[in-house]
Amino acid sequence: MDHPRLLTTEAAVSAVRALADEYRLTMTVTEDIGADQTSRRTSAGAFVTVDPDGSLPHEAFVELAGAPEVSVRIFPEDDAKITVDGVEFQDVPKDSVPAFLRSVYGGLAFTKGRFFPPGQWLVVPVPGDETYQELIASVTLTPWLARSARN
């Protein structure tokens, strides 16, 4: 399924803000603007704020309070890193962030365990036959992760 295009970081933050309002979640946003401020622009020279094409890169870090604890770092390169109760999902397309969060807060995300290879995974299905799955690195599950377990 094609997700609505979020052309800018601000559009993605606005979409997350609308979702936070819908689920009555407290949200905090930290924004970094300029090549000298964003985390992936370590090669930017001193006092250089624009990219070579003249654009201003914009990065945002969003924290959503509640269960589960969720943070979203939206990068200027059209991807995001979403952390759900300590489980990191790297390289989620920026356009998929609202659908990903809707699946988490809407009760579609679940954990599954395997005997071989041993481990627990957090699975987040997103409409359109997309599924994000990451290994849960901690030995003990948080209460939210334990509640969402499926056999």
Any overview of this molecule?
The protein contains 3 helices and 9 strands, in the order H-E-E-E-E-E-H-E-E-E-H-E. The mean pLDDT is 83. It has 151 residues and is an alpha+beta fold. The strands form 2 sheets. Strands 1-2-3-4-5 form a 5-stranded antiparallel sheet, with helices on one face. The protein has helices at 9-22, 97-105, 143-147, and strands spanning 27-33, 58-64, 70-74, 79-84, 87-93, 110-114, 119-126, 130-135, 149-150. The chain is globular and about 45 Å long. The protein starts with 8 loop residues before the first helix and ends with a strand. 19% of the residues lie in helices and 35% in strands.
Overall, the morphology is: globular
Biggest sheet descriptor:
5 strands, antiparallel
Please give the number of β-strands: 9
Question: What is the end-to-end distance?
Answer: 27 Å
**Discrete helix count:** 3
Following the backbone from N to C, one meets helices and strands in this order, namely HEEEEEHEEEHE
Structural class: alpha+beta
Residue share in β-strands: 35-45%
- Mean pLDDT comes to 83
Rg from Cα = 17 Å
Q: Give the strand order, joined by hyphens, for the main sheet.
A: 1-2-3-4-5
Unreliable stretches covering 5 or more consecutive residues: none
Helix content: 10-25%
